[in-house]
Amino acid sequence: MTKSELEKLEAGEWYQVDDPEVANRKLQAATLCQEFNSIPENEPAKQEAKAREIFGSASKNLIVHSRLNVDYGKNIHVGDNFLANYNLTVLDIAPVNIGNDVWIGPNTDIYTVNHPLIA
Question: Which residues form the signal peptide (predicted)?
């Protein structure tokens, strides 16, 4: 049976980025990030709830400051006592696993994406 492009993405295989199902997943993540980034900093409980909706999984004590940008979000998994300072970008084409007791400084970019090197 042939895999869908979304199944290929989830398996870490080459896939077509313009596939409608893949594009929809990315659009959903962009919408969630826009919602997250519109939450005032003085509402940390709302920020935490929205970050949990974006990430694939998050353990206890999750703090994420705005601006947050992700490709898909569901490939991001964070452990206990996680803090992301301002302006975190995670291009999570592949899984991003972050352990316990991690603080990420401002203006951090995490990339799991690459482009074919042979055309």
Answer: none
